[in-house]
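Re: [help] complex structure
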Amino acid sequence: MNLLSRISFSYIIVSLIVLITGGSLFFYIFKKEIYEELDEQMRDEKRNIERLIERSDTIPSFYSCVNTEILIFVAPIGLRIKPERKDTVINHPHEGEITFRQWRYTVNTEGNNYVVVIRKSLIDLSDLSEQILYALITGFITLLIGAAIVNYIVLRVALRPFYHTLKQLQKYSLDKPGNLSLTQTNTKEFRELNQTLKLMTNQIENDFQRTKQFTENASHEIQTPLAIIRNKLELLMQSNNIQHEEASLIQSAYEAVERLSRLNKTLILLTRIENKEFSEKKVLNFGTLVKHLTSQMEEKVQLKGLKISIHAHSDFNHPINITLAEILISNLLNNAIRYTEKGNEIRIEIYKNRITFSNPGLPFNIDAEKLFSRFFKISASSKSLGIGLSLARTIAESCDLKLSYSYQNYTHLFSVEA
Amino acid sequence: MKILVVEDEKELLSSIESYLKSEGFLCETTGDFNKALELIDIYEFDCLIVDLTLPSGNGLDIIRKLKSKNTNTGIIIISAKNALDDKLLGLELGSDDYLTKPFYLSELNARIKALMRRRNFNGSNIKIFGAISIDLNTHQVKIGSQELTLTKTEFDLLIYFSSNRNKVLTKEAIAEHLWGSNVDQADSFDFIYSHIKNLRKKITDSSGIDPIKTVYGLGYKFINNELT
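Output below.
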């Protein structure tokens, strides 16, 4: 339930409770007033009848009308009836059942005993209360709907800055800093919210820029010393009087430099991808690329005694930067070649918007997502840098592709999906 | 053969100079943009090796100047930036090759020699060293009169070795030369090993001499003195 409907809903519920309570109370008071009025009239009539009876000691003649009925009987002396006031239903020959307010009591004179019954029809009252009830309900419903609509519109207008801010935040991405455009608003809370958000995002953007700048500078600055060390070692190797012991020292140093420079190269590449330096994209047929790259690796595959089969069920075309696409696919291919045992087959399947690389192998027993984290290695002794799959994922993400891993039926499966 | 190396990083410059000198090249070096322009003006070089980012100017301007002189100097760009734009612009201006830092000295050497071969191409393009002759057009390799049948990789490997004779070549440098720098090298070494084994066997079978020496764990050295 969204904020607007939640507020409107609560408003309607509260209004309903208030209106129903208020309506019932009103109705109750109204009815009580009417009864009091009726009783007052009947009291007048009672006094009137008593006066008449006392004056003449006979049954006075009365005219009855639809609303009022007065009955007087002569009763045996000594009959005492407890005076009573009650509502009673009487079957009227024409009108059907009619509810009356009825008073019954005895009047004693010196010689006679009279029973007097005064009835007042409640038909008007029930008509009236019905009318009032209808009027009340109609009024209340109109009021409720009207108020709810007004409330909704007012809220919408009042909450507009909030929704605008929310939308901007949803669109916000660190890749495109400075695109958070929050509108001016007169509502104090929203103004404060926007100011706080602006401050926060500025801070985050600055930090992000600084970190990025640092990685970038560091990798570029490391480049030259690395090149120097590597070349000096290369020169040192050429020396004619190296003994075995020195050779192994040089070798260790050289290997470490190689490792460092490969690592650095990859980090630079990652930074460049994140900096959107490879934004130039072209629609690429993955089938063609895969065929091209596998033919390049054929030697490697043969030497390792593997088989690669490509099954193209459909064409898979997707806009991507060519350089990045090559790195992505060759990383996945290399990965498959590295972890496939001799004699096994690497299957590449191409579907309409998906390409999969699968090879048989024992399970890793680790979280699939961990495979894609930087510097993760299956075994510590592995010569790999543990950055290839992370690079592949960064590339995939930068080109709106989804790279995922799954393990089923003793088969590792990497899938690139548009 | 005269080479001008323009590189502002002193230590890199001295390494390049030292390697190229040991290969018998005549080397002129400078780290200064204006000095480089001056040298181009005065002397005639067979090859220019130039860094693009110099403190006092852009290496591309040195290439422009050189081209305006209408010489037959070969040009190799060495740059820390692996930017495609620079590469394309450099090649457009008339440079012959582009090498991204950090590079192997043996790779630079092989590139210079390949460039020189293309420059001095005169009808037949046969490279002879010792008893081995390589026809670069037909990819035919002979030892004496006996022909060797090599795979493409073995052929590339032989060319690389022959460009860097009597030098220790590390497996890392060989891997990058054969498969480029994007290949994850960790698993390339096994392949290099088997390629070298095959090449070695083919040469030994037809000449009885093994010119490829393993230098401790460092790498391989091609010595063909014995093949003469």
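The longest helix of chain B spans residues 188-207.
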